[in-house]
Design goal:
ion transport, ion channel, elongated, 76% helix, mainly alpha, 2 strands, single chain, 534 residues, transport, Aluminum-activated malate transporter 12-like
Length: 534
């Protein structure tokens, strides 16, 4: 038997190798198509990426002329490599990021060179031995002080890259001056090449198809409103959909969920907004009226939108709870809920359009329709008081027990159960005790671990909850969304006042609606942190 087993194993080895080779060959055949598809998709998402890549290639070609052309190489020598390094490090996707890093690099280089020459001048007066000691002490103190300054919040936020360049340049010049006599000439050449590299970067960023961080922040903030509006609308519609359609959506992943995608961008936008606002503060005033836009107000508005999004997350959670209100009860409140969600969605889209087109909000942003929808929901809830009040007599207990006996078989096949299908008498406790006695003694540890959640479940199911209680939570979150909408409107109006948005015009609103009807796509959202680097 052992010999046959060895022979069988030996026979399987070439078969498995051949199978792996076939799989590898199929993957290699698909690899070129996958690469081409990825290249096309990345460029299609944001065509500016293609332009930026061409600008970087052109900039590197220009600075390489310092090496390739003989007259230029004789003038700069091997220091021309610093121009190439500057272009690679400084040239960023947006003009604000390039200005931030370019000015930081230039300022750090100038300060480091000036301080290094001062240290060298003092060191030459102390003699050869004390010169080495003085240089070492200067490196220690300057390095420690500059590194400690990087922890200051303001410096870390605005000039961290400049401090790093200062440390690098200062150490290189100071150490080189101890062994090299013409360090002044080397420092001059290095400074000139860095200036050339920064100049080319600024030229490409500001004059040739510039990408403004402020515009990206502006468009990204306007797109958030549309994403939140879609999340609310999809959430309410899904809450009142049929059970078969909802089961089909549950099988799909969260990444394909339109509700999740709508608010995910808003919740994850904190660092994105702060980075864009920082780079936008470095950019020159390039608007028609030369107004300085309050970029920090955009960050403040983003914070308010995130708190607004948390309510939508809770609303989405009502769709995924284990205990659900029966659909026969939900249908009673379908129309007022959908109407209220529609009015909130309409208001959010109007706020997004007002920011996108830099105009004041419509005076009818909080129209009577929103208040009427809210009042209709309130009246609908008041018209069914028995659904929201727990039972106080034994008649309701018998009714619940009857519903349990009828719906128990269907509840076992469904992951989500309604409160009306949960046991409310002591039968669950007796059943649990019988199962506990029948288990083996070797599973005592497992029983101790499962004891607490099982008892908690019994305690919950034994209470006489109203079957409409989960819907009450859903409705209260809808009302909370309306309340938080007022805070969002206040921040948008404050942004329009500080940024000098134009006054609202009914004709402009008509043009905007026509454009939105023709094109139902959201504006592109630039993934700046992936391009901005440090």
């Amino acid at each position: 038997m052992e010999v046959n087993s060895g022979e069988n194993t030996t026979n399987w080895v070439p078969i498995m190798k051949k199978l792996h080779m076939n799989v590898f060959g199929e993957k290699m055949k698909k690899f070129p198509k996958l690469i081409c598809r990825t290249i096309w998709r990345v460029g299609k998402e944001d065509p500016r990426r293609v332009i930026h890549s061409i600008k970087v290639g052109l900039s590197l070609t220009l600075v390489s002329l310092l090496y390739l052309m003989e007259p230029l190489f004789k003038g700069f020598g091997s220091s021309a490599i610093w121009a190439v390094m500057t272009v690679v490090v400084v040239l960023e996707f947006t003009a604000g990021a390039t200005l931030c890093k370019g000015l930081n690099r230039g300022l750090g280089t100038v300060l480091a060179g000036s301080l290094a020459f001062l240290i060298e001048y003092v060191a030459t007066k102390t003699g050869h031995i004390f010169r080495a000691i003085f240089i070492g002490a200067a490196l220690f103190f300057i390095g420690a002080i500059a590194t400690y300054m990087r922890f200051f919040p303001y410096i870390k936020k605005n000039y961290d890259y400049g401090v790093v360049i200062f440390l690098l340049t200062f150490n290189l010049i100071t150490i080189s001056s101890y062994r090299v006599d013409n360090v002044l000439k080397i420092a001059h050449e290095r400074f000139y090449t860095i200036a050339i590299g920064c100049g080319i970067c600024l030229l490409m960023s500001l004059l040739i198809f510039p990408n403004w961080s402020g515009e990206d922040l502006h468009n990204f903030t306007a797109a958030k409103f549309e994403g939140l509006a879609k999340s609310i609308e999809a959430c309410v519609n899904e809450y009142f959909t049929d059970e078969e359609q909802q089961k089909g959506r549950e099988n799909s992943s969260d990444l394909e969920d339109p509700i999740y995608n709508g608010y995910k961008t808003v919740l994850d936008s904190k660092s994105f907004d702060e980075t864009l606002a920082l780079y936008a503060s470095w950019e020159p005033r390039h608007s028609r009226h030369c107004y300085r836009f309050p970029w920090q107000q955009y960050v403040k508005l983003g914070n308010v939108l995130r708190h607004f999004g948390y309510t939508i997350v809770a609303l989405h959670g009502c769709l995924q709870t284990e205990i659900q209100t029966p659909r026969s009860v939900r249908v009673m409140f379908k129309d007022p809920c959908i109407r209220l969600a529609g009015e909130v969605t309409k208001a959010l889209k109007e706020l997004g359009d007002s920011i996108r087109y830099r105009r004041q909000c419509s005076p009818e942003i909080l129209s009577d329709h929103l208040h009427e929808a809210l009042q209709d929901l309130n009246n609908a809830i008041k018209s069914q008081p028995k659904l929201f009040i727990g039972s106080k007599n034994n008649t309701n207990k018998l009714t619940l027990a009857t519903v349990v006996s009828k719906g128990q078989s269907g509840a076992l096949n469904s992951r989500k159960v309604s409160l009306s299908s949960v046991k409310t008498d002591t039968s669950a406790l007796l059943e649990w005790k019988s199962k506990l006695i029948g288990r083996e003694n070797s599973k005592e540890n497992y029983e101790r671990k499962s004891l607490r959640p099982t008892l908690s479940k019994i305690a919950i199911t034994s209470l006489e909850f109203s079957e409409a209680l989960p819907f009450a939570a859903f409705a209260s979150l809808l009302v909370e969304i309306v309340a938080r909408l007022d805070l969002v409107i206040e921040e948008v109006e404050e942004l329009g006042r500080i940024a000098h948005f134009k006054e609202y015009n009914q004709d402009d609103d008509h043009v905007v609606n026509v454009k939105l009807d023709e094109k139902h796509t959201m504006p592109m959202q630039n993934e700046l942190p992936t391009h901005a680097g440090d």
